Amino acid sequence: MPGAGLAGPAAAAGYAGGKSQRLSQLLAFRAGVAKSSGMKFFDVFNGDADGICALHQLRLARPQESELITGVKRDISLLKRVQAKAGDCVTVLDISLDKNRDDLLRLLADGVAVDYFDHHFVGEIPDSDQLQAHIDTDADVCTSLLVNAFLNGAHLPWAVTAAFGDNLFDAARQAAMPLGLNAAQLQQLEHLGTLINYNGYGVTLDDLYIAPDALYLAIRPYADPFAFMAASPAYATLAEGYAADIAQARELRTEVEGESIAVILLPDAPWTRRVSGVFGNELARQAPDRAHALLTVLPDGGFRVSVRAPLNNKSGADALCMGFPTGGGRKAAAGINALPAEMYDAFIDAFRSKYEQ
C-alpha cells in the first residue's frame, strides 16, 4: 500500500480493522526476518508525552530492541541522525514529515522500510512501497491516539496520558471512557501526561530533568501508568520540578492582553524553557476563547515563541508560525524557534490579525 495515509477525526477511532491487522502481520514478519538477517531497527520519536507514549504503546505490543533517536521537544529534524541501510526498519513517531522530507526520501531510496505515525503538517506524502504512513492532522488527534487505534486499544491508558499531555483534554476523556476510570484516576493520568510533556521542553538536554530517551527507558517496564507513578523515582523527580516551575510561571506579567489574545514575555532561564509549553496549555484551558503567545527573550534580543490557538477554535497556529523563519507546528499549538528581534512587531500584528475578533 504505497504511501497509505489517514485523514479526519474518525481515523483515530476507526483505524482498527483490516489495514491494522495486515500491518501488524507485517511488523511481526519483519521482527522474524530481523533475527536471521541482521536487520536493524530504529525508533525515532519526539521527546514529549505524545512521542514517548506512542513508542511505549508500540513496544509494549511489539517488543523490539532498537536504536533510540530523540531529543528535546523542539528538536524535530531527527531523521537526519538515522544511518540505516537497505532492509533496516525505521519507526517515526510524532515529528513532522514535512520537516524531515529530505531525509525520509533518502532512507526510502536506500531501501529502508519506514512506518510513520504523526499528526503535524505533512504536505505531500511520498509514494513508496517502503513507506507506511499513518498521519492525521485533525486538531483533536495526537500520535498516541493513532497508535492506540492501530493497536486496537491494547494499551489505552498510555494513549489517554499522552492526549492529556498534548492538551487534548476532551479527546483524552472521550478515549478513556472504556476504561471506566473515576475522576481521581483521570486526574492522575492528566498530571502524568503534563509531567512527561513538561520534561520535553528545553533548548538543550541540560535544561531537562531527564533526557527523553532515559525517561522512555524508565517508563518501559510499566504496562500500567498507575504503577509507574507509584514506583518510579523518575515520576517523583518530574512532579517536584514541575511544581516549582509552574508556581513561578503563574507570577509572570501579561505584556499584551485583550479579549481574544494574550502575550506573555518570559526571561531566558532553564525553568522558563522547561515550563513554557505546559504553562501555555494551562492558560489555554483557563481562557478557551483566547489565543496565547509566550515569548522567551533570547540573549541576542530575539524570541523563542510558543503559540496556543483558542481551545474553542483550534486552528491557525501552524500557519501563523510557519509565516516566520524557524516556525512550525500544528493547528492548535505551534512555535518559532528563533524570532528575530526586528520581527517582533510583525509577529504581534500577525497574531492580532489571526485571532482578534
Annotation keywords:
357 residues, alpha/beta, inorganic pyrophosphatase (n-terminal core), Diaminopimelate Epimerase, Chain A, domain 1, 2 domains, 5-stranded parallel β-sheet, 14 helices, globular, disordered N terminus
Low-confidence stretches: 1-19
The secondary structure category is alpha/beta
Query: Order of strands across the biggest sheet?
Result: 6-7-8-9-11-10
Beta strands, count: 11
Radius of gyration: 20 Å
**Main beta sheet: strand number and arrangement?**
6 strands, mixed
Secondary-structure element order, as H and E? HHEHEEHEEHHHHHHHEEHEEHEEH
How many domain modules? Answer: 2
Q: Which range does the strand content fall in?
A: 15-25%
Question: Mean pLDDT across all residues, rounded?
Answer: 90
Q: Give the CATH class of the largest domain.
A: Alpha Beta
Shape: globular
Summarize the structure.
By secondary structure, the chain is of the alpha/beta class. It has helices at residues 10-14, 18-37, 49-61, 101-109, 143-150, 156-165, 169-176, 183-200, 212-219, 225-231, 233-249, 270-286, 317-322, 344-355; strands at 41-45, 67-69, 89-93, 113-118, 131-135, 254-257, 261-266, 291-297, 303-308, 327-329, 333-339. The radius of gyration is 20 Å and the shape is globular.
